[in-house]
Amino acid sequence: MKPGQLGQVVRRRLAHAVPVLLVVALATFGLLKLAPGDAVDVLIATGGGGDAALAADLRRAYGLDQPWPAQLAHYLWRLVQLDLGYSFVHNRPVSHLIWERLPVSLLLMASATAFAVGFGIVLGVSAGQTPGGWRDRLILSVGLVLYAMPSFWVGLMLILIFAVKLALFPVGGFETAASDLTGIARVLDIAWHAVLPTVALALLFVSVYLRLMRAGVVEVASADFVRTARAKGVGATRILWAHVARNALLPVVAMVGVQAATLLGGAVVIESVFSLPGLGRLAYDSVLARDLVVLLGLLLTSAVIVIAINTVVDLVVAALDPRVVAR
Fold first, then answer.
1. Is 252 among the domain residues?
2. Domain span at residue 194?
3. Is the pLDDT of residue 132 over 70?
4. The pTM is what?
5. Taking CA 63 as the corner, what is the angle to CA 57 and CA 67, rounded to the nearest 5 degrees?
């Protein structure tokens, strides 16, 4: 793909991102404000109680006593300045809280995506080679079972079997506490902790990608250019991977962007199951604390992540098939 085409894809995605982020900001602000209670109620409840005068003083100090339009205008003005606000529950800026948790969630999402796409492609190609055969039926059945199992249940079963019974992996956490590891030792320790969460999150998506890849392989295998390659004496392995699999890969790559929001939502559950200090745990704690400022920042950050993933997917699809740039 030429640099001009690359810029065209990026500009088109950025042009769509601005109104999407605005709609997300307005919708999330309105929905969260409709929910009963606020952070002041939680602060008073967890701080030993207080009277109505104290609650009124706190709301006035936090700006929660202002009308909704004024709060919304103040919130949008802060967003223009790239300021996500200040969490009085955590007593820290929201951007600092999100920035600390973001690497954990991104690592989990990236590793789960790589696992799901890799295994989905291999299984899909294997099933598509012999459609209707015993291998095809077996792989599709396994995929259906994986798709039917909830991620949180898979995570709990993996903990029970591989962490509790076999003691092969840690029960949870992002890395060994107070280990003071650095360099490659710390990387390996984080990877060791990430194995079970990655598998638990990825298994659901493996079934999606293998079915897409299998359908693509079956369809492309009967195309004219594949029959021409066979007639020219091209080897079966080269035809399978260089011609059939490469052209069948487009729907799989496109589905990565479609599933980005679902993957992020699944990461929230998996982070809670494995006690990972990511955005999911932060969102869960913020819901319990009614910390609406943090929730707004998390939802907006999630929208940015989904948009970024879809932009990367658009670039990969355009590289595989430059014809999509003109659409």
1. yes
2. 104-279
3. yes
4. 0.80
5. 110
- Rounded-to-integer distance, Cα 164 and Cα 158, Å: 9
Please count the other Cβ atoms lying within 10 Å of the Cβ belonging to residue 260. 21
- Residue 253 maps to a domain: yes
What does residue 83 show for φ and ψ, rounded to 5 degrees? Answer: -110, 115
User: Residue 189 sits in a domain of what CATH number?
Assistant: 1.10.3720.10
Q: Could you tell me the sign of the dihedral formed by the alpha carbons of 270, 201, 188, 102, in that order?
A: negative
At 226, the pLDDT band (50, 70, 90 cuts) reads confident
When pLDDT is averaged across residues 18-32 and rounded to a whole number, the result is 78
What is the per-residue DSSP string for 152-215?
A: HHHHHHHIIIIIIIS--S-SS-SS-TT----HHHHHHHHHHHHHHHHHHHHHHHHHHHHHHHHH
Number of separate domains in the chain: 1
Question: What's the rounded Cα separation, in Å, for the pair 198 and 266?
Answer: 11
What is d(CA 63, CA 254) in angstroms, rounded to the nearest whole number?
Answer: 43
Rounded CA separation 156/124 (Å): 27
62-71 contacts, C-beta under 8 A, 24 or more apart? 62/88, 64/38, 64/39, 64/40, 68/33, 71/33
3-class state of residue 130 by DSSP: coil
User: What is the CB-side half-sphere exposure of residue 304 using CA atoms within 13 A?
Assistant: 12
50: in domain: no
Task: Tell me if 145 is assigned to some domain.
Answer: yes
